[in-house]
């Protein structure tokens, strides 16, 4: 099987294209132009996809930050809720140690309310300092005081 020699010159190319009527270059050009247009549209779509993906990535990052904040807040709430059992136990222990009046004492207390003993305070708030600070503030705010 022997093959005919292959033409390699420019003249043979021109002869081959003119043999088909000369329509192939214009048809080939229009095919190439159509393919270029398709690729340009594909490129535009890919650019839009890239932009939308960047926006989505930014939103996901914001969501991640918000979820991290939410997670930290949840941990803080869990710590507070874990402490409530201890707080309630302390209140129960403190209230158990408060002396309770006996039944005959209640009859006496009905006749003499000023002798009734009050329960001990569980929390002490220094109100003298707060009152002094408030008076100082009122003195500063008074229009005649400089």
Oligomer: single chain
Largest sheet: none
Mean pLDDT: 76
Beta fraction: under 5%
Subcellular location: Chromosome, Centromere, Kinetochore; Cytoplasm, Cytoskeleton, Spindle; Nucleus
Coiled coil: 29-66
Region (Disordered): 98-124
Keywords: Cell cycle, Cell division, Centromere, Chromosome, Chromosome partition, Coiled coil, Cytoplasm, Cytoskeleton, Kinetochore, Microtubule, Mitosis, Nucleus
List keywords for this structure.
146 residues, mainly alpha, mitosis, centromere, nucleus, DASH complex subunit DAD2, cytoplasm
Topology (elements, then pairings):
Layout: H1 10-19, H2 24-96, H3 103-111, H4 127-141
Can you put this structure into words, describing what you see?
This protein has 146 residues and is an all-alpha fold. The longest helix has 73 residues, at 24-96. The chain has helices at residues 10-19, 24-96, 103-111, 127-141.
What is the gist of this entry?
Helices cover 73% and strands 0% of the residues. The protein is mostly helical.
